[in-house]
Amino acid sequence: MTGRCLACDALQLLLYGYAALDSIPRALEMTLAWTRRDPGSAKAWALLGGMLDAAGRPDDAIAARRKSTPFDAYDDVFAGAVRLRAGDFPAADQTARAQLAEGADYESTWQGFWLLMISLRYQARWRELHEVAERRFATATMADRTGEHGRRLRFTQALALLEAGRAPDAIRILDSLTRWIDPRLPLGGRALPLTCNTPC
């Protein structure tokens, strides 16, 4: 049984600290040194991917992330998000739609869905954004419709409608969200405020 690498945890926290202070070059330098010292470390390669992404090097970021072992199923989502931040919307859309392809596992389809939604939003493709959200809500499980996924879906729809100039429709959705009920919560705490943990 392999013990937890406390030094790795400490180094990761230090890297996050440098990144939080906008010292990306220093964080990148340290992460590169980590991969040279321990080329078999999945954590090191994954962190290097993140630092290269922050440094504006999307191709290198994706290549580094794909060196992490074992291969992470969310690497495709990471690649799509990197392309999105780099402004390569066609590549991001393609990755998202691949995640939504028939036969993908349930969590991957949700990851692909959110990536596509963000891409459409960045491109101000409001009508498509609304249509995608409608389709996803219609095919979601009842648990997702009444849980966090459903609430975020409805909020995204409201945002798309508002930006598309359909304020009354957006207001109706937002008003319904103020009375949203999450069955997982105890009776005394079922009302979920709209602004709580909702991506804007």
Question: What brief labels describe this structure?
Answer:
200 residues; mainly alpha
Topology:
Layout: H1 6-20, H2 24-37, H3 42-54, H4 58-65, H5 75-85, H6 89-99, H7 106-122, H8 126-139, H9 142-145, H10 148-163, H11 167-177
Helix pairs in contact: 1-2, 2-3, 3-4, 4-5, 5-6, 5-7, 6-7, 7-8, 8-10, 10-11
Structure description:
α7 (106-122) runs antiparallel to α8 (126-139) and α8 packs antiparallel against α10. Mean pLDDT is 78; it is low at 187-200. This protein is mainly α. Helix content is 67%, strand content 0%. The protein starts with 5 loop residues before the first helix and ends in a 23-residue tail after the last helix. The protein contains 11 helices and no strands.
Helix/strand order, N-terminal first: HHHHHHHHHHH
| Global Rg | 20 Å
Largest sheet: none
How much strand content do the residues show? under 5%
The chain-level structural class is mainly alpha
Q: State the helical fraction.
A: 55-70%
Number of strands: 0
Mean residue pLDDT: 78
Please report the distance between the alpha carbons of the first and last residues. Answer: 43 Å
Summarize the structure.
This protein has 200 residues and is mostly helical. 67% of the residues lie in helices and 0% in strands.
